[in-house]
Amino acid sequence: MGIYVFEMFFVLFAGALLYSKKMSKKMFLILTFFSMALILGLRGRNVGEDTAHYIDVFERTNYISWKTLFTSGTDVVYETVWNVNRSMEVGYLILNKLVRIFTSNAQWLLIIVAFATCYLMAKFVNDNCSKVFLPTYIILCESLYMQSFNLARQTFAIAIGLQAYTVLKERGKQSIIKAIIIIFIAFLFHKSAIALLLLIPLWLIKDNRRGMKYILIGSICAPFFVTVASKIIFILLPRYGVYFENNYWEAHVGGVVLLWIIELFMILYIFRKYKNSDGKEIFITTACTAFYISLELIGLRISVFTRITLYFRAFLIFLFPYFPRYLKPKLRLEYRIGLTVLLSVFFLRYASTPTRLYYFFWQ
Fold it and tell me: Is 0.85 surpassed by the pTM of this model?
Protein backbone atom coordinates (compact mmCIF):
# COMPACT_ATOMS: atom_id res chain seq x y z
CA MET A 1 0.00 0.00 0.00
CA GLY A 2 3.01 2.25 0.49
CA ILE A 3 3.31 2.97 -3.23
CA TYR A 4 -0.29 4.25 -3.33
CA VAL A 5 0.24 6.50 -0.30
CA PHE A 6 3.34 7.90 -1.99
CA GLU A 7 1.34 8.54 -5.17
CA MET A 8 -1.42 10.33 -3.26
CA PHE A 9 0.98 12.62 -1.39
CA PHE A 10 2.98 13.24 -4.57
CA VAL A 11 -0.14 14.57 -6.32
CA LEU A 12 -1.04 16.66 -3.24
CA PHE A 13 2.50 18.08 -3.13
CA ALA A 14 2.42 18.87 -6.85
CA GLY A 15 -0.96 20.50 -6.31
CA ALA A 16 0.51 22.72 -3.58
CA LEU A 17 3.28 23.79 -5.98
CA LEU A 18 0.68 24.48 -8.67
CA TYR A 19 -1.44 26.53 -6.25
CA SER A 20 1.60 28.58 -5.17
CA LYS A 21 2.46 29.18 -8.87
CA LYS A 22 5.77 27.36 -8.54
CA MET A 23 4.66 24.82 -11.12
CA SER A 24 2.84 25.33 -14.41
CA LYS A 25 -0.42 23.62 -15.32
CA LYS A 26 1.30 21.65 -18.08
CA MET A 27 4.13 20.47 -15.81
CA PHE A 28 1.63 19.45 -13.13
CA LEU A 29 -0.27 17.26 -15.59
CA ILE A 30 2.91 15.72 -17.00
CA LEU A 31 4.35 14.81 -13.59
CA THR A 32 1.15 13.53 -11.97
CA PHE A 33 -0.15 11.46 -14.88
CA PHE A 34 3.34 10.16 -15.70
CA SER A 35 3.69 8.89 -12.13
CA MET A 36 0.23 7.31 -12.30
CA ALA A 37 1.07 5.61 -15.60
CA LEU A 38 4.40 4.37 -14.25
CA ILE A 39 2.83 2.70 -11.22
CA LEU A 40 0.00 1.29 -13.32
CA GLY A 41 2.25 -0.05 -16.08
CA LEU A 42 4.91 -1.62 -13.85
CA ARG A 43 2.45 -3.61 -11.73
CA GLY A 44 2.94 -7.32 -11.20
CA ARG A 45 0.83 -10.10 -12.69
CA ASN A 46 -1.48 -10.42 -9.66
CA VAL A 47 -2.06 -6.72 -8.96
CA GLY A 48 -5.70 -6.22 -9.92
CA GLU A 49 -8.24 -8.93 -10.64
CA ASP A 50 -7.74 -9.15 -14.44
CA THR A 51 -4.06 -8.35 -15.00
CA ALA A 52 -3.14 -12.03 -15.34
CA HIS A 53 -5.99 -12.44 -17.84
CA TYR A 54 -4.62 -9.63 -20.03
CA ILE A 55 -1.20 -11.28 -19.99
CA ASP A 56 -2.76 -14.61 -21.01
CA VAL A 57 -4.68 -12.96 -23.86
CA PHE A 58 -1.45 -11.37 -25.06
CA GLU A 59 0.12 -14.82 -25.26
CA ARG A 60 -2.91 -16.19 -27.15
CA THR A 61 -2.71 -13.51 -29.84
CA ASN A 62 0.46 -15.19 -31.08
CA TYR A 63 -1.82 -17.86 -32.57
CA ILE A 64 -4.29 -15.44 -34.21
CA SER A 65 -3.56 -14.51 -37.81
CA TRP A 66 -3.87 -10.99 -39.18
CA LYS A 67 -6.44 -12.30 -41.63
CA THR A 68 -8.61 -13.53 -38.75
CA LEU A 69 -8.34 -10.17 -37.02
CA PHE A 70 -9.48 -8.24 -40.08
CA THR A 71 -12.23 -10.62 -41.20
CA SER A 72 -13.98 -11.53 -37.95
CA GLY A 73 -15.94 -8.35 -37.36
CA THR A 74 -15.81 -6.41 -34.10
CA ASP A 75 -15.35 -9.56 -31.96
CA VAL A 76 -12.55 -12.07 -32.45
CA VAL A 77 -12.32 -15.52 -30.86
CA TYR A 78 -8.92 -15.81 -29.18
CA GLU A 79 -9.36 -19.29 -27.68
CA THR A 80 -11.85 -22.14 -27.33
CA VAL A 81 -12.23 -23.96 -24.02
CA TRP A 82 -14.53 -27.01 -23.74
CA ASN A 83 -16.23 -26.01 -27.01
CA VAL A 84 -16.93 -22.52 -25.65
CA ASN A 85 -15.50 -19.64 -27.68
CA ARG A 86 -13.87 -16.81 -25.78
CA SER A 87 -13.79 -13.59 -27.72
CA MET A 88 -12.66 -10.02 -27.30
CA GLU A 89 -12.98 -6.74 -29.19
CA VAL A 90 -10.89 -6.57 -32.34
CA GLY A 91 -9.26 -3.22 -31.54
CA TYR A 92 -7.71 -4.51 -28.35
CA LEU A 93 -6.48 -7.71 -30.01
CA ILE A 94 -4.94 -5.74 -32.89
CA LEU A 95 -3.07 -3.67 -30.30
CA ASN A 96 -1.81 -6.91 -28.72
CA LYS A 97 -0.72 -8.16 -32.13
CA LEU A 98 1.11 -4.91 -32.91
CA VAL A 99 3.00 -5.05 -29.62
CA ARG A 100 3.97 -8.67 -30.33
CA ILE A 101 5.76 -7.53 -33.51
CA PHE A 102 8.36 -5.83 -31.28
CA THR A 103 8.36 -7.97 -28.14
CA SER A 104 6.97 -11.17 -26.67
CA ASN A 105 7.01 -9.63 -23.18
CA ALA A 106 3.40 -8.94 -22.13
CA GLN A 107 4.57 -6.33 -19.62
CA TRP A 108 5.11 -3.92 -22.48
CA LEU A 109 1.43 -4.19 -23.35
CA LEU A 110 0.51 -3.21 -19.78
CA ILE A 111 2.94 -0.29 -19.95
CA ILE A 112 1.62 0.94 -23.32
CA VAL A 113 -2.02 0.72 -22.24
CA ALA A 114 -1.21 2.47 -18.94
CA PHE A 115 0.63 5.37 -20.59
CA ALA A 116 -1.94 5.73 -23.39
CA THR A 117 -4.80 5.79 -20.87
CA CYS A 118 -3.12 8.32 -18.60
CA TYR A 119 -2.07 10.51 -21.53
CA LEU A 120 -5.64 10.65 -22.85
CA MET A 121 -7.03 11.41 -19.39
CA ALA A 122 -4.46 14.18 -18.92
CA LYS A 123 -5.41 15.57 -22.34
CA PHE A 124 -9.09 15.45 -21.39
CA VAL A 125 -8.41 17.42 -18.21
CA ASN A 126 -6.15 19.91 -20.00
CA ASP A 127 -8.68 20.51 -22.79
CA ASN A 128 -11.70 20.97 -20.53
CA CYS A 129 -10.55 22.30 -17.15
CA SER A 130 -9.05 25.70 -16.37
CA LYS A 131 -8.02 24.47 -12.91
CA VAL A 132 -6.50 21.02 -13.11
CA PHE A 133 -5.60 19.94 -9.57
CA LEU A 134 -9.05 18.86 -8.38
CA PRO A 135 -10.01 16.98 -11.60
CA THR A 136 -6.66 15.15 -11.45
CA TYR A 137 -7.15 14.26 -7.80
CA ILE A 138 -10.66 13.01 -8.55
CA ILE A 139 -9.32 10.73 -11.30
CA LEU A 140 -6.73 9.38 -8.86
CA CYS A 141 -8.97 8.93 -5.83
CA GLU A 142 -12.62 8.57 -6.83
CA SER A 143 -12.08 5.16 -8.50
CA LEU A 144 -11.24 5.66 -12.20
CA TYR A 145 -7.50 5.22 -11.66
CA MET A 146 -7.93 2.26 -9.32
CA GLN A 147 -10.33 0.65 -11.78
CA SER A 148 -7.47 0.74 -14.30
CA PHE A 149 -5.67 -1.98 -12.33
CA ASN A 150 -8.59 -4.30 -13.03
CA LEU A 151 -10.60 -2.99 -15.98
CA ALA A 152 -7.61 -1.80 -18.01
CA ARG A 153 -9.29 -2.41 -21.36
CA GLN A 154 -12.45 -0.55 -20.41
CA THR A 155 -10.68 2.40 -18.79
CA PHE A 156 -8.63 2.71 -21.97
CA ALA A 157 -11.90 2.79 -23.95
CA ILE A 158 -13.24 5.42 -21.53
CA ALA A 159 -10.14 7.57 -22.01
CA ILE A 160 -10.54 7.31 -25.80
CA GLY A 161 -14.30 7.89 -25.79
CA LEU A 162 -14.19 10.95 -23.55
CA GLN A 163 -12.32 12.82 -26.29
CA ALA A 164 -15.71 12.91 -28.07
CA TYR A 165 -16.91 15.35 -25.42
CA THR A 166 -14.05 17.70 -26.28
CA VAL A 167 -14.77 17.69 -30.02
CA LEU A 168 -18.50 18.17 -29.45
CA LYS A 169 -17.69 21.52 -27.85
CA GLU A 170 -16.58 22.68 -31.29
CA ARG A 171 -20.25 22.57 -32.35
CA GLY A 172 -21.50 21.88 -35.86
CA LYS A 173 -22.02 18.83 -38.03
CA GLN A 174 -18.30 18.07 -38.34
CA SER A 175 -17.94 17.84 -34.57
CA ILE A 176 -20.72 15.25 -34.40
CA ILE A 177 -19.05 13.15 -37.11
CA LYS A 178 -15.70 13.37 -35.28
CA ALA A 179 -17.39 12.37 -32.01
CA ILE A 180 -19.02 9.32 -33.62
CA ILE A 181 -15.66 8.24 -35.08
CA ILE A 182 -13.95 8.61 -31.68
CA ILE A 183 -16.69 6.65 -29.91
CA PHE A 184 -16.49 3.94 -32.58
CA ILE A 185 -12.73 3.61 -31.98
CA ALA A 186 -13.43 3.27 -28.24
CA PHE A 187 -16.13 0.71 -29.12
CA LEU A 188 -13.47 -1.42 -30.84
CA PHE A 189 -11.70 -1.73 -27.48
CA HIS A 190 -14.79 -2.23 -25.31
CA LYS A 191 -18.33 -2.45 -26.63
CA SER A 192 -19.79 -0.69 -23.60
CA ALA A 193 -18.29 2.56 -25.00
CA ILE A 194 -21.40 2.76 -27.19
CA ALA A 195 -23.05 4.37 -24.14
CA LEU A 196 -21.11 7.57 -24.88
CA LEU A 197 -23.29 8.16 -27.96
CA LEU A 198 -25.71 9.64 -25.43
CA LEU A 199 -23.43 12.70 -25.31
CA ILE A 200 -24.57 13.68 -28.81
CA PRO A 201 -28.28 14.27 -28.04
CA LEU A 202 -27.22 15.93 -24.76
CA TRP A 203 -25.28 18.48 -26.80
CA LEU A 204 -28.15 18.93 -29.25
CA ILE A 205 -31.01 19.48 -26.80
CA LYS A 206 -31.56 22.88 -25.26
CA ASP A 207 -29.74 23.31 -21.96
CA ASN A 208 -32.41 24.81 -19.72
CA ARG A 209 -34.12 24.04 -16.44
CA ARG A 210 -36.97 22.26 -18.19
CA GLY A 211 -34.66 19.82 -19.95
CA MET A 212 -32.70 19.23 -16.75
CA LYS A 213 -35.92 18.59 -14.84
CA TYR A 214 -37.00 15.85 -17.26
CA ILE A 215 -33.55 14.24 -17.14
CA LEU A 216 -33.55 14.20 -13.33
CA ILE A 217 -37.09 12.83 -13.13
CA GLY A 218 -36.30 10.15 -15.72
CA SER A 219 -33.13 9.15 -13.90
CA ILE A 220 -34.95 8.88 -10.57
CA CYS A 221 -37.75 6.81 -12.10
CA ALA A 222 -35.54 4.51 -14.19
CA PRO A 223 -34.53 2.08 -11.38
CA PHE A 224 -38.18 1.61 -10.39
CA PHE A 225 -39.21 1.21 -14.02
CA VAL A 226 -36.57 -1.48 -14.62
CA THR A 227 -37.69 -3.36 -11.50
CA VAL A 228 -41.33 -3.34 -12.63
CA ALA A 229 -40.39 -4.13 -16.25
CA SER A 230 -38.26 -7.09 -15.18
CA LYS A 231 -41.21 -8.59 -13.29
CA ILE A 232 -43.56 -8.09 -16.25
CA ILE A 233 -41.06 -9.62 -18.69
CA PHE A 234 -40.45 -12.53 -16.34
CA ILE A 235 -44.22 -13.26 -16.31
CA LEU A 236 -44.97 -12.66 -20.00
CA LEU A 237 -41.66 -13.76 -21.53
CA PRO A 238 -39.92 -16.05 -19.01
CA ARG A 239 -37.32 -16.97 -21.62
CA TYR A 240 -35.91 -13.42 -21.44
CA GLY A 241 -36.53 -12.92 -17.74
CA VAL A 242 -33.20 -14.61 -17.02
CA TYR A 243 -31.41 -11.47 -18.16
CA PHE A 244 -33.00 -9.61 -15.25
CA GLU A 245 -32.65 -12.37 -12.69
CA ASN A 246 -29.04 -13.50 -13.19
CA ASN A 247 -26.02 -11.37 -12.36
CA TYR A 248 -22.71 -11.93 -14.05
CA TRP A 249 -20.87 -10.82 -10.95
CA GLU A 250 -21.85 -9.67 -7.50
CA ALA A 251 -22.65 -5.97 -7.11
CA HIS A 252 -21.46 -4.42 -3.87
CA VAL A 253 -22.42 -1.05 -2.46
CA GLY A 254 -20.08 -0.56 0.48
CA GLY A 255 -18.99 2.93 1.48
CA VAL A 256 -19.57 4.32 -2.02
CA VAL A 257 -23.23 4.83 -1.07
CA LEU A 258 -22.02 7.90 0.85
CA LEU A 259 -20.70 9.37 -2.38
CA TRP A 260 -23.96 8.58 -4.14
CA ILE A 261 -25.88 10.52 -1.51
CA ILE A 262 -23.48 13.47 -1.75
CA GLU A 263 -23.60 13.48 -5.55
CA LEU A 264 -27.39 13.24 -5.58
CA PHE A 265 -27.58 16.18 -3.19
CA MET A 266 -25.21 18.14 -5.43
CA ILE A 267 -27.18 17.69 -8.65
CA LEU A 268 -30.47 18.48 -6.92
CA TYR A 269 -28.92 21.58 -5.36
CA ILE A 270 -27.48 22.65 -8.73
CA PHE A 271 -30.91 22.16 -10.31
CA ARG A 272 -32.43 24.37 -7.60
CA LYS A 273 -29.94 27.15 -8.34
CA TYR A 274 -29.51 26.50 -12.07
CA LYS A 275 -30.04 29.31 -14.57
CA ASN A 276 -30.44 28.83 -18.31
CA SER A 277 -27.30 30.91 -18.86
CA ASP A 278 -25.08 28.64 -16.73
CA GLY A 279 -23.74 26.82 -19.76
CA LYS A 280 -23.90 23.53 -21.60
CA GLU A 281 -21.00 22.03 -19.60
CA ILE A 282 -22.86 22.20 -16.29
CA PHE A 283 -26.03 20.90 -17.93
CA ILE A 284 -24.24 17.83 -19.36
CA THR A 285 -22.28 17.23 -16.15
CA THR A 286 -25.48 17.23 -14.11
CA ALA A 287 -27.21 14.94 -16.60
CA CYS A 288 -24.30 12.46 -16.71
CA THR A 289 -24.12 12.35 -12.92
CA ALA A 290 -27.86 11.61 -12.80
CA PHE A 291 -27.38 8.81 -15.36
CA TYR A 292 -24.47 7.44 -13.34
CA ILE A 293 -26.39 7.26 -10.05
CA SER A 294 -29.47 5.82 -11.76
CA LEU A 295 -27.48 3.11 -13.56
CA GLU A 296 -25.63 2.24 -10.35
CA LEU A 297 -28.97 1.66 -8.62
CA ILE A 298 -30.14 -0.49 -11.54
CA GLY A 299 -26.80 -2.30 -11.29
CA LEU A 300 -27.67 -3.48 -7.79
CA ARG A 301 -30.22 -5.73 -9.48
CA ILE A 302 -28.62 -6.25 -12.90
CA SER A 303 -24.92 -5.90 -12.22
CA VAL A 304 -23.87 -5.62 -15.89
CA PHE A 305 -25.12 -2.01 -15.75
CA THR A 306 -22.33 -1.13 -13.34
CA ARG A 307 -19.92 -1.35 -16.27
CA ILE A 308 -21.89 1.27 -18.22
CA THR A 309 -21.87 3.66 -15.26
CA LEU A 310 -18.11 4.14 -15.53
CA TYR A 311 -18.50 6.30 -18.66
CA PHE A 312 -20.82 8.72 -16.89
CA ARG A 313 -18.97 8.45 -13.59
CA ALA A 314 -16.00 10.07 -15.32
CA PHE A 315 -17.94 13.34 -15.43
CA LEU A 316 -17.57 13.67 -11.67
CA ILE A 317 -14.27 15.37 -12.50
CA PHE A 318 -16.46 18.29 -13.60
CA LEU A 319 -19.24 18.02 -11.01
CA PHE A 320 -17.07 18.48 -7.93
CA PRO A 321 -15.20 21.55 -9.28
CA TYR A 322 -18.41 23.13 -10.68
CA PHE A 323 -20.40 22.78 -7.46
CA PRO A 324 -18.68 25.63 -5.51
CA ARG A 325 -20.12 28.10 -8.05
CA TYR A 326 -23.46 27.55 -6.33
CA LEU A 327 -22.09 27.95 -2.80
CA LYS A 328 -21.52 31.11 -0.81
CA PRO A 329 -17.89 32.27 -1.13
CA LYS A 330 -17.19 31.73 2.58
CA LEU A 331 -18.11 28.03 2.23
CA ARG A 332 -15.94 27.24 -0.78
CA LEU A 333 -12.65 26.68 1.07
CA GLU A 334 -14.32 24.36 3.60
CA TYR A 335 -15.92 22.48 0.71
CA ARG A 336 -12.60 21.94 -1.08
CA ILE A 337 -10.83 20.81 2.11
CA GLY A 338 -13.68 18.44 3.02
CA LEU A 339 -13.80 17.02 -0.50
CA THR A 340 -10.04 16.45 -0.59
CA VAL A 341 -10.16 14.61 2.74
CA LEU A 342 -13.12 12.49 1.63
CA LEU A 343 -11.46 11.58 -1.68
CA SER A 344 -8.25 10.67 0.15
CA VAL A 345 -10.15 8.32 2.46
CA PHE A 346 -11.83 6.61 -0.48
CA PHE A 347 -8.52 6.26 -2.30
CA LEU A 348 -6.85 4.63 0.70
CA ARG A 349 -9.86 2.36 1.06
CA TYR A 350 -9.52 1.20 -2.56
CA ALA A 351 -5.75 0.84 -2.15
CA SER A 352 -6.09 -1.37 0.92
CA THR A 353 -8.11 -4.11 -0.80
CA PRO A 354 -6.26 -7.45 -1.16
CA THR A 355 -6.36 -7.42 -4.98
CA ARG A 356 -4.58 -4.03 -5.04
CA LEU A 357 -1.65 -5.33 -2.98
CA TYR A 358 1.17 -3.86 -5.04
CA TYR A 359 4.43 -5.29 -6.23
CA PHE A 360 6.52 -4.49 -9.31
CA PHE A 361 6.58 -7.02 -12.14
CA TRP A 362 10.23 -7.88 -11.54
CA GLN A 363 9.69 -8.73 -7.86
Answer: yes
